[in-house]
């Protein structure tokens, strides 16, 4: 059984994740819309932590980078 201090910390971490989710979703939407406007349609964006991917993309149209430690951004274009 977890100690009260550990439970409190876990609850705070969960609360912080719930509050940052809309920011992450909005970041992905903003990146996608910007790429669509600048380079044409069919761009996709994923922003988050702890995900893996296998996808089909056009040659030279994939960006995968880490931002601020654990935060990853994956952008790709497929038509």
From TrEMBL:
It comes from Mya arenaria. It comes from the Eukaryota. This is DNAL4-like protein. Gene3D superfamilies: Protein Inhibitor Of Neuronal Nitric Oxide Synthase. The lineage of its organism: Eukaryota, Metazoa, Spiralia, Lophotrochozoa, Mollusca.
């Amino acid at each position: 059984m977890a100690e009260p201090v550990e439970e409190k910390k876990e609850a705070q971490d969960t609360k912080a994740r719930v509050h940052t989710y809309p920011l992450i979703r909005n970041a992905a939407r903003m990146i996608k819309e910007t790429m669509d406007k600048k380079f044409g349609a069919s761009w996709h964006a994923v922003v988050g932590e702890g995900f893996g991917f296998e996808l089909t993309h056009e040659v030279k149209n994939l960006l995968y980078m880490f931002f601020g430690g654990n935060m990853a951004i994956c952008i790709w274009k497929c038509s």
